[in-house]
Amino acid sequence: MRPWIGLALVWAFISCGLRAVPSDEVLERIGFGSCYKPEKQTPLWAEVKRFDPQLWIWLGDNFYNDWIEGKYIRFNDDPDAFIKGYEKLSKSEGMAALQKLMPDHVMATWDDHDFGKNDAGKDYSRKEEARKAFVRFWGTPDRPDGVYSSRDWGPAGKCVRVIMLDLRYNRDPLPKKKEVSPEGDMLGELQWAWLKGELSRAGADLVVIGSSTQFVAEKHPYERWANFPKSKARLLQLIADCGTKGVIFLSGDRHNGEISCQKGTVVGYPVYDITSSGLTEVSSLKQELNPDRVGHLVNAQNFGVILLDWKEVDPKVTLELHLSNGTVAESLSFPLSQLAPHKP
């Protein structure tokens, strides 16, 4: 047995047991990120350690299965590809920085590159191999239709529900030129039913939804929920129908960071999406159209932060993007009550 597999099995055994039970720990500091090539070194992890998150969320592209020795390949047919990918991740600078949080204070989903193929969805031929490797490493529930998961943190009145979506295993094929698939689905019906249960379940004061691709931003030509407008509208309507308060989206994928806010939806309050990408990968794009952006586009290695101040009568939520030099590139604060459905 490879060393990382044995360790991952221990993590899986422990974390599956813990995730069935809500944590009593009050969350005040959440860190998250995406788009990580484990073979690369970066001072960003020193800043993560300095921030000292209580929970870390991996938002996908946690390694790049379709990059071999620094070169992109269209399809990795190595039978040990996922073993090698997770072995590299397990020995990485990032996992060492998060060592004290493993296994029960780390949550994860995947995106296309650790799923195994650029822009891949349900038609990817190695998706079941990818799913089994993900479950074995991260210890998420062993579901037949993907790697989605959820966990509650904190007591009543300070409860944070973290929902990690799977936007790959059952996602319909991406439209040509990444345009619009009017009837295309992102999740699959089993995950939709599960998500309805999580959004309907009482007790959460803040609901953090981990979405590997951007939920709010719609104008760029890359992967986004807007490729599948029926699914995006369905999720907004589901939040509204369930009366779910306090929803915030976290996303990655883009190799740049930003905070977006969509208003005027059926949800009845502003829908925030904070994008953190990448931990090592940075886009060459310096500007990009996004009418819903709050602040500026961040073209640098970054990780995302949610700060929660529960001391106030109306708790304060702060969203931030942190850089490797210790500066905060973007910051936005608002009262938690802002994320409550407006009564007619």
Report on this structure.
The chain is α/β, with parallel strands linked by helices and 344 residues long. It has a single domain, classed as Purple Acid Phosphatase, chain A, domain 2 (4-Layer Sandwich). The chain has eight helices and 15 strands. It has helices at residues 3-19, 44-51, 81-90, 93-97, 112-115, 127-138, 189-200, 229-242; strands at residues 29-33, 55-58, 67-68, 71-72, 106-108, 149-153, 160-164, 206-210, 247-251, 257-262, 271-275, 293-298, 302-309, 316-323, 328-335. The protein has a seven-stranded mixed β-sheet, with helices on one face. Strand 3 and strand 4 form a beta hairpin. Helix 1 crosses helix 6. The N and C termini lie far apart (60 Å).
What's the short story on this structure?
With 344 residues, this protein is of the alpha/beta class.
